[in-house]
Amino acid sequence: MTDIQLDPGALRHLADAQMNVELDTGDMILNLGPQHPATHGTLRLVVRLDGERVLAADPVIGYMHRGYEKLTEFRTYPQVTTLINRIDWLSSFANEVPFMDAAEKLMGVEAPPRAQWIRTTLTELSRIATFLLFLGEMGLQVGALTPAFYGFRDREHVLNLIEAATGGRFHPNFNRIGGLKDDVPWGWIAETRATMKIVLDACDQFEDLVLGNEIFGARTKGIGIIPGDVGTSYGVSGSNIRASGVDWDLRRDGKPYLVYPELDFKVWTHTDGDSYARYWVRLQETRESARMVLQCLEGMPSGPIMAKVPRIIKVPEGEVWVETENPLGQMAYYVISKGATGPFRVKIRSASFSNVSILPWLLQGVYVPDVITILASLYFILGDIDR
Amino acid sequence: MLRPEPPLADETPAPDAPDEAAAPDEAAAPDEAAAAEAAAPETEVEAPPEPNPVHEELLALLRDGGLDDSSIIETADALGGLVVRVANTQWRQAAVVAKSHLACDYLSFIAGIDWQPAPREGTEEGGDTSAPVQPTEMTFGAAGSAGRFQVFAHVQSSTKHWGLTFKTDVDDADPRVESWVSEYPGADWHERECWEMYGITFDGHPNLRHLFLPFEFEGHPLRKDFALLARVVKPWPGLVDVEPMPGEPEEPAEAAEAAEATAAAGGDA
Fold first, then answer.
1. Residue A347 backbone phi and psi in degrees, to 5
2. Chain A stretch 75-94, residues whose beta carbon is closer than 8 A to a beta carbon of chain B
3. Geometric angle at alpha carbon A160, from A42 and A175, rounded to 5°
4. Probe site for chain A from B1, B44, B46, B129 (most A CB atoms < 10 A)
5. Do B222 and A70 touch (CB under 8 A)?
6. Which candidate in A189, A252, A325, A334 is best for mutational testing of the B interface (most B CBs within 10 A)?
7. pTM for the full model?
8. Which run of H or of E encompasses A28?
9. Chain A window 15-74: which residues touch B at a Cβ cutoff of 8 Å?
10. CA gyration radius, chain B
């Protein structure tokens, strides 16, 4: 009838297509969350599925919206630290630093050197604690239970250090405008040095256990690729964007803050931009942070930990933008002061908010099990999204 | 930033810790001195001590991109950060130029400001007296404003490592401005947040709907005239710790103010 010769392979495809048409079930709407283990809290994803494939994903956020930007207008500057501790609760200390920096810049005060060094040490310890949880938990999301236990176990050592210095495991509230509440306790430095050995060993262990695992590689390599330019246009920052080959770390490239200009550290990047690369970069950064903590302990000067500040803090009129490289990415505050005891307006720029805003783009066309690994590898904290 | 070497720790507190926080001494770093100078006179930076070379370069690049003097209303140096206030009609063009000429490929945030002072309820009839007292007249921050509402955004370059803040005025009665979604896809959520929090419409936004708040929510919570309900119901008992410490001779300013306030209110008892 026709002179077109179809080879047997093509005929088989045709038969498959016929079968698919018959078995077509139409789109399905699946609610992922708001209570899903991969969502670190209450992120809800409404995904439209065609079989196992995601056609569209719409993150629904706001389940944990606490209105911090409004609340800051009703607090004095020292009271605001209590709020911002709870934005990204895994690295609360690191959240406090940019706000303190902003208030200090507006007031023209600078924290004494020892306070700056201790701040840097504790910021890096927060980073290690945050990343150790990630390194363990990412395994959990691909079905490996063991790394999670190791992650929690090793993070506990670091949390003990933070608790010993600040009194709080999660919400230290340790920064004051012009310095710190207290000096570190006696023996803390030696203990920190010993703990960093544990952390470095733990990193080696994770490298063997997780990165060397074939199944882990199969689940994460080539999954959830974020090209660098797409990532930056969505405001993705931190380890996520460095895993996409964008060589940008505010500790090195931003306005100098804390004592990072005096530390010797490497900014790790990966060119792949997939879930595996994000894990790899965070692993290297955990190591690098441990080395930075050791440098901080070496270089820590003696001296006072508080600058002289008035007892009632009134911040002169002005506005300032302060950004820092937090464990989850760029954390920044735009503080507008009108010369009162409390801020007039604080724009809280949190990392996870922008990191997660790429999800509708990123999840198009991936398979449902990969949604979980992508969510886990982006590593967000709900408090950091919803504020 | 004055960060002395660790061995010098013994002599660092002297230049580093100013006697009075309001008047840091000259040993501070130049940008800090500039900050203090900027803060000490009035609000606007009348005559910056020396122009920041990075800011000059950024402004020159903006002009190269076609943002001329009619588009750029005012610029300011906010403690080392460049603030450029552009005309409302040029808002999207500012993003285009920032992306193409300034290599600002990274959108940090878009948000709104309400410059109107919050009404203070309950100074006489109880209510909230504990919130920090803000000035009662409307003043504007860096680079000024024409009205109550402004939209501001921060863009950065991941290659050049610089960044700047754009501001633009929006109309009080019908606040609207062009959307940046076509330039920065990440603007989507930021603009949705700004829309629900301030009621500022972004023309050209594909899907302007609630982000954080439930869809049936009414009002714009971050506007200054939106009362914080928790404070209306129960005053915040937070601001009581103003007694002087045992070693502190001078009377705290707040106590004096409070005394003045009660005297002015006629409460002799």
1. -95, 120
2. 75-76, 79
3. 75
4. B1
5. yes
6. A334
7. 0.78
8. strand A28-32
9. 61-62, 65, 67, 69-71, 73-74
10. 23
> What is the average pLDDT across A207-220?
86
- Residue A116, both tokens: 């700056």
A353-368 confidence digits (pLDDT tens): 999 899 999 988 888 8
Query: Domains (ranges, CATH) in chain A?
Result: 68-386 (1.10.645.10)
Model confidence pLDDT, tens digit, residues A50-69: 888 888 888 888 888 888 88
- Residues on chain A touching B132 (C-beta within 8 angstroms): 74-76, 340-342
User: Which residues in chain B have Cβ-Cβ distances shorter than 8 Å to A334?
Assistant: 109, 111, 152, 154, 165
More confident residue, A14 or A84: A84
* Beta partners for residue B151, in sequence order: B112, B168
B134 with A344: Cβ contact below 8 A: yes
The beta-carbon neighbor of A62 closest among B108, B118, B211 is B211
The domains of chain B, with CATH numbers, are: 36-250 (3.30.460.80)
Query: What ipTM does the predicted assembly reach?
Result: 0.83
Task: From first to last of the 269 residues of chain B, give the pLDDT tens digit.
Answer: 444 444 433 443 444 444 444 444 444 444 544 444 444 444 444 555 677 888 888 888 888 877 887 788 888 888 888 888 898 888 888 888 888 888 888 999 999 998 888 776 545 444 455 566 777 777 787 877 888 889 999 999 988 888 899 999 898 888 889 999 988 998 989 999 999 999 899 988 888 888 888 888 888 888 888 877 777 776 665 545 555 556 655 554 555 455 444 444 443 43
Question: Among all chains, which residue has been given the structure tokens 């080395």?
Answer: A291
Choose the closest CB to B106 out of A235, A301, A340.
A235
In chain A, which residue's Cα lies nearest the Cα of B162?
A: A254
**Chain B nearest CA to A236, separation (Å):** 8
Q: How far apart are CA A84 and CA A67, in angstroms?
A: 11
Q: Which residue of B has its CA nearest to A297?
A: B6
A358 or A212, greater pLDDT? A358
What is the chain A residue with the closest CA to B44?
A318
For chain B, give the longest Cα–Cα distance.
67
Q: For residue A280, what pLDDT is reported?
A: 92
Closest CA to A156 of A142, A144, A169, A145: A169
Are the beta carbons of B39 and A317 separated by less than 8 Å?
yes
Alpha-carbon torsion B109, B110, B116, B118, what sign? negative
Count how many Cα atoms sit within 13 Å of the Cα of residue A208 in the half-sphere of its side chain: 6
Q: What is the dihedral of CA A117, A122, A125, A127, to 10 degrees?
A: -100
3-class secondary-structure state, position A217: helix
Among the residue ranges A256-265, A295-304, B225-234, the one predicted with the least confidence is B225-234
CB A119 within 8 A of CB A175: yes
Residues 151-190 of chain A with CB under 8 A from chain B are 178
For residue A357, give the nearest of B133, B188, B236 by CB distance. Answer: B188
Q: Is-contact B9 A117, C-beta < 8 A? A: no
Cα→Cα distances A20→A17, A387, B209, Å: 5, 45, 37
Measure A108 CA to nearest chain B CA, in Å.
6
CA dist., res. A89 & res. A86, Å (int): 5
